[in-house]
Amino acid sequence: MGNLIEAIITEISRFIVSMISTFGYTGIFLTMAIESACIPLPSEIIMPFSGYLVTTGQFTMLGVTLAGAIGNVAGSLVAYYAGVWGGRPFFERYGPYMLVSVRDIEMADRWFAKYGEAAVFFGRMLPVVRTFISLPAGIAGVNIYRFILFTFLGSLPWCYLLAYIGVKMGEQWEHLRDYFHQFDIVIGVGLALAIGYFVWSHWPRRQPKLES
């Protein structure tokens, strides 16, 4: 299992490095857009590698931060409009088959009822949550202009922080990546358990039937 996880991480890293090395700022934009469109391509690899390239003179901190944040906005709009156009009835009926439960939707409703549109801003700075926050924002009908503004502002510190880590890592990038490979098995087992529980708890047969 450890070898499989390492191979997956290596391929993801290779894809990210290739995209950024080939397309420059556009590569940062595209990979961060993918991450924000509810596709878990890790920004924890994208932005630190971009930060590392700042030390080589290929990028600037301002450039990588803006490219990452704007990419976040673009990808978030895809997820946002999926929530808007699909709406609550669509996800109540078909959500369980996409592992989005009625309970998830109700939780999103409570989240926005309690925190309002600020949930979009602060959600962008939370690992994992930042990838999926746009979908419930669309379902909740957050104003599109404020959604874009809060998404951009919330993405800036996250992108800058991860890029700054890459700058501080500098030439130790490869050594640190090898160091973190030691934790692949632990991370993989944890992810497998988490995904297994998520699928088990969200499987359609376990959802309460909606009244017609």
Sketch the major β-sheet.
none
Number of strands: 0
Give the overall pLDDT as a whole number: 76
Whole-number tally of structural domains: 1
What ranges have pLDDT less than 50 throughout 5 or more consecutive residues? Answer: 179-188, 206-212
Separation of termini? 45 Å
Q: How much helicity do the residues have?
A: over 70%
Q: N-to-C SSE series?
A: HHHHHHHHHHH
Principal-axis shape equals elongated
* Share in β-strands: under 5%
- Give the radius of gyration: 18 Å
What structural class results from the helix and strand content? mainly alpha
Count of alpha/pi helices? 11
Structure keywords:
212 residues; mainly alpha
In short:
The protein has 212 residues and is mainly α.
Structure in words:
The protein is mainly α and 212 residues long. It has one domain (2-206). It is built from eleven helices and no strands. Helix 1 packs across helix 2 and helix 3 crosses helix 9. The longest helix has 34 residues, at 61-94. The N and C termini lie far apart (45 Å).
Question: Which SSEs are present, and which pair or pack?
Answer:
Elements: H1 2-23, H2 25-36, H3 43-55, H4 61-94, H5 102-115, H6 118-123, H7 129-132, H8 134-140, H9 144-169, H10 173-180, H11 184-202
